[in-house]
Amino acid sequence: MIDPGALLGPLWTLLAFVGLGWLAARRLAIDPRPIATLLIYLIAPVTFFRGLLLGEPTPHYLLLTLALFLLASLVAAAINPLARRFLPPQESAVLAFSSGTGNTGYFGLPIAMVLLPPEGVTLYLFCLLGVTLYEFTVGFYLSARGQFSVRQSLAKIVRLPLIYAFLAALLVSGLGIALPAALMDSLAVFPSTYTLLGMMIIGMTLGRVAIREIDLRFMAGCVVIRYLLWPWLMLVVVLLLQTLLPLSDELALALLLIGVVPMAANVVVVAMELGIRPEKGALAVLVTTLAAPLLIPLYLGLLLSLAGL
């Protein structure tokens, strides 16, 4: 059984950031939209670029990134038409985007560092990068389609710098270029800034939410996808891989952890940037995050047992 105490540190830290965001919105009247733009167009690409370089990508690691990118994209593509049947366009777009991702970075990475050895953390990191790549390509497109045409949505993706940060990191690593240590040290502030601002945006958005904006049907859809679909989907993936090839315990745990984290804070960041109901995404993210300390230990213990680990 996973110790729930291992989750309390990351959880309370993230909730404290959400609280700071709420205070900033209520007391200082700070507009979160420029912060969302800053995250998407500057802080996230630099964080992604640095993470790839430090992880020293190999074909094996990049295969994990590709596999998680494809899996997240397939889940979102399957949920998208279902969401459009039951929800208005903007809400369905947010639900489709959220269905392919989770809080693998802000929440999952600190837990991975507690539960996994260094090699396992590296495996988890490259899985995480695949989910992040989905968020800023396929996921961003699905979100944009909530109110933009196909051409406009594709144009918005082409302008996203994270794609080019990914390609630049692969080029630098492939050519064996060693960036100056002083430069890499200066980039170390970006991951923590990314986490802080990403979670604060949730609080800023919640600070503007009225009771009438609570959408139980939308929230139920988010909870079902995040805490019913994804955990069992990742168990199926692990069991399938175990039958096809030798699967290390570290990689199996990394994959299962991807499946049990709460909703991604980037749901709110992207929705804020595109202007598509960020307040509903913020409420759903908060609910799934509050449920995480109870559900994650139970889920991981059960899934590990079923996977024979």
TrEMBL record:
Belongs to the auxin efflux carrier (TC 2.A.69) family. It comes from the Bacteria. The chain crosses the membrane at residues 6-23, 35-55, 61-82, 94-116, 122-142, 162-183, 189-211, 223-245, 251-271, 283-307. It is found in: Cell membrane. Pfam families: Mem_trans (PF03547). It is a multi-pass membrane protein. This is AEC family transporter. Gene3D superfamilies: 1.20.1530.20. Keywords: Cell membrane, Membrane, Transmembrane, Transmembrane helix, Transport. InterPro entries: Mem_transp_PIN-like (IPR004776), Na+/solute_symporter_sf (IPR038770). Its main location: membrane.
